[in-house]
Protein: Prenylcysteine lyase domain-containing protein
Amino acid sequence: MTHPMAIIFVLLTFLAICQAQDATTLPAPTVCIIGSGIGGSSVAHFLRKYSPNSSPSIKIQMLERNGLVGGRMATVNVAGDTFEAGASILHPKNFHALNYSKLLNLEFKEKDSSSGCSSLGIWDGKIFVFKTVKIGCDVPLFDKLVSLVNSLLLFIRYGFSLLKMDSFVEGTVNRFLKYYEEPASRPIFETPDEMLKWAGLYNLTTRTLHDELVDFRLSPLLIKELVTVITRINYGQSVYISGLAGTVSLAGSGGGLWSIKGGNWKMAAGLINQSDVALHLHEEIESIADLGDFYELNSTKGNSYACEVAVVATPLDESNIQFIPQISVSKRKIQHTHTTFVRGLLNPAYFGLSAVMEIPELVGTVEDPDLPFSSISVLKKYDEKDATYKIFSRQPVSDTLLDSIFSVRKETIRIDWPAYPHYHAPEVFTPFLLDDRHLYYVNAFENAASTMETSAVAAENVARLILSRYFGTKSMHSSKFSSGSHREESHVDL
Ligand SMILES: Cc1cc2nc3c(=O)[nH]c(=O)nc-3n(C[C@H](O)[C@H](O)[C@H](O)COP(=O)(O)OP(=O)(O)OC[C@H]3O[C@@H](n4cnc5c(N)ncnc54)[C@H](O)[C@@H]3O)c2cc1C
Structure:
């Protein structure tokens, strides 16, 4: 008679073999990614980078409703010159973007914001309450001097608060650097809340930038003027945005800023090219149905895509995608930013000045509902009477208004961007995982801050989450979104 222990041993061995076979014989999944911006392209890149060699090769389908990749990284052509129309600047510590540009051999373009030549003026609708100088910009020897004079002018107006602001921003940037730690020692997150808590950034999303800076003892004048100018330029919003989005916005106004020569969209294009992706342009997804073993994505053209894993890499807030069954996401308003490009010449009289050269190259504004724009900046100067300008505003700028701001207007291009979330505090986050299976949402992280780099950071986490849930063990941070008492008010079903 066979010994019972031997039978148990044989059974256990059989089970172990079956399990091992399960892990390796899982069918190669098709991952469908909706959106070809930096978020979608980064998911594709990191899926390839982190896919275990032992697992079958993933098939990646990318669906993009536009005829071009890049999403909010897009360029515009004004009178023969190309300018960034959406996301324009990168921070020196945006390490994913830096790695992408090295990997893809893209050329850097530095934006020297420390130069005294990019003069700044703060306009309150009647006068410039503060102005830096711009004399001597064409003479390299004077550059440094002008820069020093401007630092002094800023110091005289805002005092030591400027240094406090720098240290506040640096502390936050340093915490963000945790997201670049080795994957082996870095958890995978199912929710942005967990991801932010792990880096020590979550609390900044629960209070306004204003309150954070007041507690940090920044002077009210600095908050009312310079900080306001920056949040209005970078997010089209006031200092009452959440502390984290506000701090990210302040970080985007320091030195060492850069961009990709020819357009930041080249990062998305390069990543997609390198990641063996089947890209479908002009393909707008209108529904995602969970059919049990796979998701069926249907496009407005009538095409269907079957995928084991579906990734939404675009904000769902103003999208028409229908989910079957319904999913629940946190309510979020989108801030529209109207970007108007004008080739021509500003009218000094509009600003109560007598000569164009007295108008600063960057005109920022304070918070006042009557002000029709957030900022006007010179993008390129052709000669003393001809330049290309970029205007940011919350509402469209009318021709009548443009005719009073400009004395010459040769070309005007208008873009209405559904730009970024309308930030508030406390922020309520949607999880990265939208159901109990394999439906993911990269832009859940956009309530933290909206930048090219934060999209890449969220995408890297989502790629790891997909791989760990599909091929491996579940993430240790499986803090599922729980329906709290405020769920009704703070969530919407799609
Ligand atoms: C005016 C402006 C200025 C900015 N400035 C900066 C800056 O200086 N620095 C910075 O880092 N960030 C900046 N940002 C923010 C930055 O652009 C975004 O955070 C980032 O590009 C978001 O990338 P994403 O891939 O997550 O989304 P997106 O770039 O929006 O990509 C989503 C893609 O999905 C596609 N899509 C949407 N719905 C569907 C559908 N149903 N079917 C198929 N495809 C679909 C869209 O066409 C789009 O291509 C700026 C944004 C704007 C608007």
